[in-house]
Automatic annotation (TrEMBL):
Residues 82-135 form the Trichome birefringence-like N-terminal domain. It comes from Lactuca sativa (Garden lettuce). Belongs to the PC-esterase family. TBL subfamily. It is found in: Membrane. GO terms for molecular function: O-acetyltransferase activity. The chain crosses the membrane at residues 12-32. It is a single-pass membrane protein. This is Trichome birefringence-like N-terminal domain-containing protein.
Amino acid sequence: MKQNWWRSAYNHWVFKLGILMLLVGFGFRFHLSQSSSVIPNVSDNNFGTPFVTKNEKPIPSDFAESPKVLNRSYPKDDDESEKCDIFHGEWIPNSGEAPYTNNTCRWIESDQNCMSNGRPDTGYLHWRWSPKACELPPFDAKKFLEMMRGKTWGFVGDSITRNHLQSFICLLSQVEDAVEFFHDKDYKNRKWHFPSYNLTVSVIWSPFLAKAETFEDINHIPSSEIQLHVDILDKTWTQQFDTWDYVMFSSGKWFVRTAIYYENNTILGCHGCEGKNYTDLGFNFAYQKVINNLFDFIMNSNKQSTIIFRTSTPDHFENGPWSNGGTCDRRVPAKEGEFELGILNRILREVELPEFAKAKASEKGKKLKLLDVMPLSLVRPDGHPGPYRYFYPFAKDKKAKVQYDCLHWCLPGPIDQWNDLLMKLVVDD
């Protein structure tokens, strides 16, 4: 009798303990799901692109389970099974010379002119990208110009787009020097012509690809939140779209800045707007809206242009963020896996690849190409200007404290091989 009473009481307490543990588990999961509803807020910087998080919070649960996002498959052309994957490979030593120098190209902006600014090492110039299953021919400027007779190109995006455009112009200028025939007062929107080939190349400053009002001083210090209209594409490029035969779009990093989001001229919410009574929607919300609108615009246009979408790119700050001693002093490419895809880039990539795949699946006769520069760029921490965005930064003091640029790329440098990939896409078109 006593044994039965004890067994009954024991079973009763075990049952209650099990229920209690289940309740605690459900409560913990609920807490995690609530705490992951806001993505990191990111502050601004002098380079026009943010790098450092402020009041970092967990990333959304939608993005938490994507450790292989860097190598996620993307849509291939119909005959892609017979081609190699040019975006996955390795950097191998190359004894050849750079395709141009600061003396042979006059279109390099000072911030990326590492040679003229006194960078002492040149090893970063002697590597080439080698896809794992095939050879990638180097950019052939003569052949490219012949192919592009009478054509027009547009590069639309932010300062990385402008960085890429300079590389493109420098490569072509080794055959015929470009003639600049237009620029705005800030030199953010520019046009060049290659007379012998009747090729016109434009670069359009549109960091959001959408209508946006920014408020900052001459040193790029913001005085107020960006006003971003997620439903209205930037007319700076939409009004010229029909004039281009080839267009490259790229964006991403500007979306992590503090911003108020509008749709139908009504505030939807914001990102990082502390102290305001708006819902923090996260920058992935705005980026997805804009990229979706971009592809809708392309699909519904009458112009049969070749559209190239370039993926976002990494930074390589070590030992701190850009604003607090961050550096990039490496002199050789990193080993595979040494640099992980950061949270911000991972979130951007989680938007870009699915949106491109969706557009590619319903091409409607359009020519869509993905220029996925993330894999080969992630392992090139040695290719940034670093302190040499300034002219001889250590000439007067070898221990001078200098703000590094570990996002943009030296010219010449690894970014030139983005154009090897670009030509491969165009040649195979």
